[in-house]
Amino acid sequence: MEQSYEEEIKILQQEIEMYEAEQENCMRSISTEHGDVMQSILKTVCSHKERGDGVLKKDVSKLITEITNMETDLRRQTKISEISLSECCVKTLEKRKRETIQQYRLSGHCRFLSFQVEFALTEIQDSDSFLRKVTDLNIIVDGAEFKDLGAFVSRVEETKSLYLFFRTLRLFSDRCDERARTFRYFKEKYPDVVCLPEGCSSEVMIIQSPSLTGYTMNIYWSISVSKEGVIKPKIELLMKMPDQAQQMDSQNVMETAPECFRSLLMIFGVEISIECLIKTMHF
Amino acid sequence: MENVRQQGVLDHLMMLERAGTRRTERPQHSRLEELRNAIATLHVKRDRLRIETVAVKNLKQKMDQGMPLEDHDYGDLLQLEKALLTSRHMKLKDLQSAHSLIAGYDLMECNQGKSVCVSLHTAFEGVYVETYNMEVDLTRTVQISRHNIPPYVPLEMIAKQTLQTDFKGFLQTLSLHLNALAGRKQQISLIMELGTVKVIERNQLCNFLILMCKAQEESETVLCTLEYGDLTRYLPTRVTIESENTTLVESQQWRKNRLLLLEFPVHCALLTMRKMGSIA
């Protein structure tokens, strides 16, 4: 008798778990796929609801308070971490008594750099310990800025260092921002001398003499990220002049210029050094 | 009490134990009744869930097809509202947990907005380790009112540098320190798992470590001292190798080993050294 009861309980519990999982999945996809529709329905529902039983009403108002608080916290969190998620898809892959595996698919941007991150999160609850770990990490970053990030990204995927990835992304975007701001500043100040062939967020800035054709100074400002996430900006100068002029270059300006520019950078910093270069062309 | 004095404490305890076990031996029929009750409750729960699930599924289907919803679609407006709010709640919960998994900290308003509770999470190689909590008072000047960050973490120094002027930067630096600490700590437990290398000295900050290993061929003892000069990193800044056998220490293989220890997490470096036959 006892045994058959216990079996029935087991079956009922399994059914309950199944319904719960099904409901959860359904709920998740509603808010993921129909977020806007949902919000508008909620608004109309809120405006004409009067009747209803007390318990349900209480549940609803509790949910509303919790949602408002969560939204405030999330806004703050996004502002401080500077990671904003535009898509967040969570799927429960496995759910056993002690172990849950969920798949996270996130996309969003950290400052102006967009990313897509995918990973599985395993949670194992033992009587005295709780283990959470990330596996199967996959990162996609695209955009012109990221072309040298490949080695770093694969290292992050290998070591599953999500924190390192986002910390580096933030610092990297700082450096990119700095470069873009500098380029834009010179473009605005000397519009007829400075040329940004690939826009201000690329790594090239060309200084052209308005009066002398064929004379250009190319500034290559690259930002490299090492495997460990160390960010190093590197600024280099490349001179170009017509062949004729090169033959007359008795002081070897062409060859020595990059080295001179490097020492200039060390002593005066980026902005003054570039300003100096522009002044030599802009007479 | 009289009894205790007469027969001693142990006897009394034994008596209590007997009484205790007797109580658990309940009559058979009440156990069955309990089970029957449990079944009844579960039945109710299951039926409620079944109805709810069907309703949620219908709702989703209607939304998928872009059909307008009517009152009777969900029995009751309040029910519909609850379902939709639950869905939104779930979404926000997912967003929150995603954030804490990738950003390393959670912020939660408390005290009616007068302070924020910050939970700082740490992880090493994908495994989440400790979480530290901190309450930050925002009323006038930003102040840490309570926290459980261990005293050997230079919290005060970090706070002095950035807490007032750059809260973002403060959290990032603190998180970097805590994660580096977690990384160093985790590496030590991974060394212990290797079994053959002994940790003979370590400190709380885990920035000073002496390991004892056995060189495989000469069966000589080698001491590796790892110093972590940069507390924001989990890799050492200085590695010294010592042994009575000086030719061994100066051998090319051990020079390579030293570089390995500088460049890779210590458990990985030791594993490689073992694979190459340097250590037992």
Automatic annotation (TrEMBL), chain A:
Matching InterPro entries: CENP-P
GO CC field: chromosome, centromeric region; nucleus
BP GO annotations: CENP-A containing chromatin assembly
Keywords: Coiled coil
Coiled-coil intervals: 2-29
Pfam families, per database record: CENP-P
Source organism, top-level taxon: Eukaryota
Protein name, per record: Centromere protein P
Recorded name of the encoding gene: CENPP
TrEMBL record, chain B:
Major subcellular site: nucleus
Location(s) in or outside the cell: Chromosome, Centromere; Nucleus
Entry-linked InterPro entries: CENP-O (IPR018464)
Keywords in alphabetical order: Centromere, Chromosome, Nucleus
Domain of life: Eukaryota
CC annotations in GO: Mis6-Sim4 complex; nucleus
PANTHER family: CENTROMERE PROTEIN O, INNER KINETOCHORE SUBUNIT MAL2
Family of the protein in this entry: Belongs to the CENP-O/MCM21 family.
Protein name stated in the entry: Centromere protein O
Protein source organism: Electrophorus electricus
Gene (name only): CENPO
